[in-house]
Design brief:
Elements (H helix, E strand, L loop, with lengths): L23 E6 L8 E5 L5 E13 L4 E18 L4 H8 L2 E3 L7 E3 L9 E9 L5 E11 L16 E7 L5 H4 L8 E8 L5 E6 L12 E2 L9 E5 L4 E4 L7 E9 L11 E5 L4
Length: 274
């Protein structure tokens, strides 16, 4: 279990750990100037986080006897049905054009042209029976519903299906800087207005900063990256100038981490007991 960081003594039958139904789904659309997460609705009870693996099979002898199976491909997806029906969610999940050009009404137009693919970050929020928060966070995904069948005649309510496939996030530090990331660490340094150089950097054990990796903090413009590092001089050169003076400014920097590839698609986040 060491390779998975699992403690078997934590296993057990605990009814307080059952998930409550009807989680809320929040989305942020990548590529927009608006980088906020917005709730798009509650889900029906049936929802699915799917992990699909494909294997290369190795056999020996006649008849063949299985030696081992190695994973050669994997896919992750979040799928479910939204209870709310409104023009924006229909347009978003069916990837169709929303027209509100002076008609006094909104129309979702099913045309022959297919709009560009939508890339999103997803945050599914629910809780356990004992009130502890559980989140499923997809860092970078694509809306990819192969079929779009809108249930209009259900007994209780209409529902709208969706599917988001998790993609590798090449910029998790920039796309969702507030989300935990294995390849992120903290440091402090002194900023000077209009200067790209951070001086008096307290590196600590950080000897593996990524050139081109992101650096974020107060007085640092969004999207700023690490241009150079001088460990002997205790300086970091940024791709953009600081916007104000700041002594002992806390910054978060992107680092090489042996397990960072485990943290670039999606993660479950469980609230611990106080």
């Amino acid at each position: 279990m060491d390779s998975l960081n699992i403690t078997p003594s934590n296993f057990g039958k605990n009814k307080s750990k059952f998930l409550m139904h009807d989680p809320a789904l929040y989305l942020k659309i990548h590529g927009l100037t608006d980088t906020n997460f917005y709730p798009i609705g509650y889900l029906e009870m049936e929802k699915e986080w799917a992990q699909k693996l494909e294997y290369a099979v190795f056999k020996t002898g006649v008849p063949g006897q299985l030696v081992r199976k190695d994973v050669v491909d994997q896919e992750f997806s979040l799928e479910g049905k939204l209870k709310q029906i409104q023009p924006e969610t229909i347009a978003l999940l069916s990837q169709r054009y929303l027209d509100s050009s002076g008609t006094g009404k909104k129309r979702v137009v099913m045309g022959s042209d297919i709009p560009p693919a939508l890339f999103v970050a997803a945050d599914l929020v629910t809780q356990t029976v004992d009130g502890k928060e559980v989140r499923l966070r997809v860092r970078y995904g694509q809306i990819t519903a192969e079929e779009f069948a809108l249930a209009l005649g259900a007994k209780e309510h209409a529902s709208i299906p969706f599917k988001i496939e998790a993609l590798i996030d090449e910029d998790p530090f920039g796309n969702n800087p507030d989300w935990d990331y294995i390849g992120k660490a903290s440091a402090t340094g002194t900023l000077a207005s209009a200067s790209e150089i951070i001086t008096a950097v307290s590196f600590g054990d950080l000897d593996n900063l990524i050139i081109g990796g992101h650096i974020i903090g107060a007085n640092i413009p969004d999207g700023t990256t690490i241009a150079a590092v001088d460990y002997d001089a205790d300086t970091i050169t940024m791709s953009a100038a600081a916007t104000d003076d700041a002594a002992a400014q806390a910054v978060e920097v992107e680092i090489n981490h042996e397990n960072s590839d485990y943290d670039n698609v999606a993660f479950f986040e469980f609230e611990e007991a106080a």
